[in-house]
Amino acid sequence: MDFTGAYAPSHLTFLLEGFLVTLQVAFLSIVFSFTIAIIVGVLRYAKIPGVSQVLGTIVELIRNLPLLLIIFFTYFALPEVGIKLDKFWAAVLALVIFEAAMLSEIVRSGLTSVEKGQIEAARSSGLNYVQTLWHVVLPQALRRMVPPIVSQFISLLKDTSLAVVIALPELMNHAQIINGRNVNYVIPTFLMVAVMYFVVNYALSVVSKRLENKHA
C-alpha cells in the first residue's frame, strides 16, 4: 500500500472532481425524481379510474428492474430510437426513472397512512377534495415520509456509482483510473472514496433525524 502516492495532491483533486460529478448527478436526480414521485404518488392515492392502475403497473415494473439495466437502456438503447444522450444525462435519466418509482410508493404509502377520520372531518368542515389533500393530508404525510425519503436519497447517492459502467467521469470512475496507475494505490484510494461517500450520507442521515425529532 502506498498512501503517500495515492494521496498526492493531483490524485485527491482528481477524486474531488469525480465526486463533484457524483453530487451533480445525485442532486439533479433527487430534484426531478422527487417531483415526479409526488405527482405519481398523489395520482395513485386519488385512485382515478384507469390512471391509478396504469401508473401502479408502471411503478411496479420499474421497481422490479435492476438499475443497471435502466442505465444500459438510457445510454445504449435510446440512441437506437433516435434519442441520444451524453453520459451525464443518461445517468441522470436512469436514476430519475428508477428513483421516481421507488419514491412514489413512499409518497403513496405516506398519504394512505393519514387517518380517514381527519379527512372526513376536513370534508365536513367545507373543504373540497383538493383542499383537504393540500392542507390536511399532504402536510402530515410529508412529515411521516421524511425518514424513508432521506434513506432513499442516500441510496440514490450510492447508486450513482453504477454509472461507472458507461464511463461517466464520477467518483468511482476516477478512483479506477488512479488505481490503474499503481496497484499499491487500490486500498488507499478506495478508503478515501468510502470516506467521501460516508461524510455526505452521514450528513443526510443527521438531517433526517433532526427533521424527524422536530416533527415528533
TrEMBL record:
Listed transmembrane segments: 20-43, 55-76, 88-107, 183-204
Keyword terms of this UniProt record: Amino-acid transport, Cell membrane, Membrane, Transmembrane, Transmembrane helix, Transport
Major subcellular site: membrane
GO function term, MF aspect, one: transmembrane transporter activity
GO cellular component term, pick one: ATP-binding cassette (ABC) transporter complex
A Pfam cross-reference name: BPD_transp_1
Record-linked CDD domains: TM_PBP2
Membrane topology: Multi-pass membrane protein
UniProt keyword Lipid biosynthesis present: no
Subcellular localization, as worded in the UniProt entry: Cell membrane
Domain ABC transmembrane type-1, chain residue ranges per copy: 19-208
Family: Belongs to the binding-protein-dependent transport system permease family.
Protein name per UniProt: Glutamine ABC transporter permease protein
Organism: Brevibacillus brevis (strain 47 / JCM 6285 / NBRC 100599)
Gene symbol of the encoding locus: glnP
